[in-house]
Amino acid sequence: MLDVARCAGVSKSTVSRVLNGKNIVREEIKALVYKAIEETGYRPNLLAQQLATQKTNMIGLVITNDVYNGPFFSTLVYNAAKFCEEQDRRLIFADGKNSAEDEINAIDFLVRMKCAGIMVYPRHMSVTQLEKIVADSPVPVIILNHKLTQHRDRAICIDHYHGAEMMMNYLFSQGHKRIAYISGKMPAPSNSARQQAWQDKLQSQGQQDYETLLAHGNWSMESGYQAARELIDRKEAFTAILAGNDDMALGAIKALKDMKLAVPETISVAGFDNAKTGHYFSPALTTLDTPLDQMVKRAVEIILDLPRDAAYSTLSGTLVVRESVSKR
Predict the structure, then answer these.
(1) Residue 188: what are its φ and ψ, rounded to 5°?
(2) Alpha carbon 210 to chain centroid, angstroms
(3) Angle at CA 240, nearest 5°, toward 318 and 173?
(4) Per-residue pLDDT tens for 87-132?
(5) Structural element, H or E, at residue 5
(6) Any residues with CB less than 8 A from the CB of 67 and at least 6 apart, and which?
(7) C-alpha–C-alpha distance, residues 47 and 79, integer Å
(8) Which end of the chain, N or C, is less packed with Cβ atoms under 10 Å?
(9) Domains of the chain
């Protein structure tokens, strides 16, 4: 900053006033300062400014890297960046890595960066740890896709159980009774709720052997492919496969086609999250649209204390009917 002042022929305090947007500096002086900035290649020290002013236009996001591989992550980050931009804020991302300690460290990093607030999509932290972080943080911390008991107004949840019920009811309405399920990587609240709804719905129809219709994946297309082959190799009778996310559902369709089983004529397939790839796949995938955009939007609104409607209510998904499910 001193170099800029010398180049412009003004005081250091004048340069500071220009950079901070003070209107008391004459326009011709501002022009000299901006020209000097260009000539010297000066860039303000953002962290120093934040420490001095205790203000920032940044909103933080913490996600563990377990979620990176797939459309869910890209959709979440896209919506977070979009809603931050709409409020003239910048999204800053911190990697939660592979443990609760890593997630806590990522949150602490964003707090020290003076973020206006932080959104956390936790994978490893316990509810007790989340409650403590929300209570102790000097800035608003909003927990995504997890329920809190002591700080319910700081948690934005999606009712994955209800969404899976909707999907199972639709499959039942199409005449499917024996429905297999491909689970995602555990532990995950979305997968636990979806798998539980699948199990409860089958048991409500008098099917107690649901475990023979369960295969495990890890959210990837490859795992969906292998899980579908495993289900077929068991020689169990079923007419539909419900996968814990769209990637696994698309992998399952590929496996069925490779085994010369027509989709949906022989076996129907459905998924969750409404990934864009499912719309352009053949057959186009029937899925449940998960309202990630609404979840992130409400989190940003809470952080910035913006007007909002029913900000703390649990969100629900929407059924998207396409070509991969047929009547029996």
Answers:
(1) -155, 125
(2) 30
(3) 55
(4) 999 999 999 998 999 999 999 999 988 899 999 999 899 999 999 9
(5) helix 2-8
(6) 73, 76, 121, 123
(7) 26
(8) C
(9) 2-44 (1.10.260.40), 55-156 (3.40.50.2300), 161-290 (3.40.50.2300)
